Amino acid sequence: MIENVRLSLQGILSHKIRSFLTMLGIIIGIAAIIAIVSTIEGTNEQIKNNLIGSGNNTVKISLMDGDTECDFSWTPVPDNIRVISDSSKERITDLKEVDSCTLYRTRQTPENLFYLNKRIESSIIYGIDSDYFSTMGYEIAQGIGFTESQYNDFSKVAIIDQNMQRGIFENEDPVGKSLDINGEPFKIIGVACKRSGFEPVINSVDDYFTYKTTSSGLIFIPTNDWGIIFSYDEPQNCVIRAKDTDSMTNAGKKTADILNENIQKQSVNDEQSGGASGEGISNTLEYKSESLLEQAKKLQDLSKSTNQMLIWIAGISLLVGGIGVMNIMLVSVTERTREIGLKKALGARKSRILAQFLTEASVLTTIGGILGVLIGIGLSKVIAKLAEVPVSISTPAIVVSVAFSMVVGIVFGLIPSIKAANLNPIDALRYE
């Protein structure tokens, strides 16, 4: 085998230009495939990071009325949904897919939110428990966080995010200042920010509307303070942090099932007692988990289906390259007819002649495949810079490409090799 490889390399180097032109189709095909696959992988990773949040593995489970999330800013609170108990939260935390869990209440754009008699528009307020910041990946950037006692009593304190600090307080120190929420003063004790500082990558208008949210900022208050300004028994939503990205979907569904037990049991009791849910609330209320991972997969599948056609088109050049290999190997057999005849006259078997020419074809296409991979990686980097498209070099794609180039050499080198092996030694020796 080693001798065949040595002879193959010797034959290739003795006809450098011809060998390069023969490999050109293989090089172009492999380079195109590597560049396309790298672009697909990079785009998929960007989609996944944008939707999931750069690997924080959090899943939101919300109370939904059909396909719409319930917001009690303008709908009455239903009486067929109990507040989520500590035991239910413990059951969720004990799930093998779940790392941590938090319960919270939220309203968008509360009407009576003021700072120094100036109304604050388009803000979102959260009533949170002690696990919220750790589960959601927040840290205190300025001031202090809530103490354990502040979560349990009615201290009327608040933490804001950096968007509100920039927009409302114009980057001044907000700690110690007060917000008026529904006529109640809440003292700001800190400013929170995301640990990762993650922002979705926006490459188009569609990306903007897919990933971007519009809010002047977030306000966090302890969950026990919620009853001071809103209805105390409002149902909570839930956010869980899954142990890994692949567990997100199952963790979200299992959590929703646990939370929905309260609704189902209470609904049955209501029907037996002739009760009804709150006015304006339908009977389709249930907790649902947001399927960000499924959304990512759908967008990834769309990206892949679009680019698969490009891969097939690039594969045509491999077919053309294979035909070129067959052609040059037929020429090589013709040129070396006397050599083949001499070898057979000296006792070389058909299998030896066949192996020699198959090895030469395989070596030729393998070298082309390796060059194609190197050019493909370089091309991917160029595309990333010029088109501002993320790329991710795929190791499996490189291995498969080189292996495939070897297969092309074997397949298309088979006919010339068989022709060489079947030559009559006497006719071959007489060939001029």
Task: Explain what this protein looks like in three dimensions.
The protein has two domains: 2-50 and 299-430, no CATH class; 67-283, no CATH class. The chain is 54% helix and 17% strand. The protein contains 14 helices and 13 strands. The protein is elongated, with a radius of gyration of 34 Å. The chain starts with a helix and ends with a helix.
How would you summarize the topology of this molecule?
Blueprint: H1 2-14, H2 16-52, E1 58-65, E2 68-69, H3 86-93, E3 98-108, E4 113-115, E5 118-119, E6 123-128, H4 132-136, E7 138-143, H5 148-152, E8 157-161, H6 162-167, E9 178-181, E10 184-194, H7 205-211, E11 217-222, H8 226-229, E12 237-242, H9 248-273, E13 285-289, H10 292-335, H11 337-345, H12 350-387, H13 395-421, H14 425-430
Parallel strand pairs: 6-11, 8-10
Antiparallel strand pairs: 1-2, 1-12, 1-13, 3-6, 3-12, 4-5, 4-9, 7-10, 8-11, 9-10
Beta-strand residue percentage: 15-25%
What characterizes the major β-sheet? 13 strands, mixed
Query: Radius of gyration in whole Å, from Cα?
Result: 34 Å
> Cα distance, first to last residue?
30 Å
**Overall 3D form:** elongated
What is the count of distinct domains? 2
> What order do the SSEs take from the amino end to the carboxyl end, as H and E?
HHEEHEEEEHEHEHEEHEHEHEHHHHH
Low-confidence spans: 204-214, 265-281
Q: Output the number of helix runs.
A: 14
Number of strands: 13
Structural class comes to alpha+beta
Query: Oligomer, anyone?
Result: single chain
What is the average of the pLDDT values?
Answer: 78
User: Into which percent range does the helicity of residues fall?
Assistant: 40-55%
